[in-house]
Hints:
The protein is α/β, with parallel strands linked by helices. The chain contains seven helices and ten strands.
Amino acid sequence: MVSSEPGRKGGSMRRVIYSVASSLDGYNTDAQGDYSWAVPDEEVIAALNADAGEVSTYLYGRRMYEAMAGWETDPAVAAQSPESAAFAATWQAAHKIVFSAGLPEVWTKRTRLERELTAEAVERARAEASGDLTVEGPTLARSALRLGLVDVIELLICPVVVGAGTPVLPDGFRTALSLTRERRFSNGMVQLTYAVR
């Protein structure tokens, strides 16, 4: 089936999705680096799991990879709930590409290390992918957005204002967006999905 979605040319190109949790005032972490206010409940994890079924490849920077590796290396993480276990299985089955100049090695399966995020590296990953790709974490996404590599911005808005911290979007970045989906959850979170025009 030929798709007209952004990032898919003749059905052969996979979308690069920047998926991120955000406070109402636009931060991924607060000034102390805390993001416990963004932890999803079972309803939200179930929705994210459904989305993850379309994703074959995760793109990470060093810190996000180190945080996410527990989904494979720490059984207690997956044992938190049935939806957590489902996500762990999906995550382990996906390919991971870690972009880091300083990380000496990766320690999870289906994972490779690249020293720098470049347009060429992401386009190679697109060509290799069997599904969509996600850029995880605002630091790596900052580079991907500025290089024009992101097709979709997906924000999980959390019902909290934190005042300062790590911004979800880089300063000075501008682009036109089209809202393609809105989902509301009973815990007050709202997921907004935008195609980058």
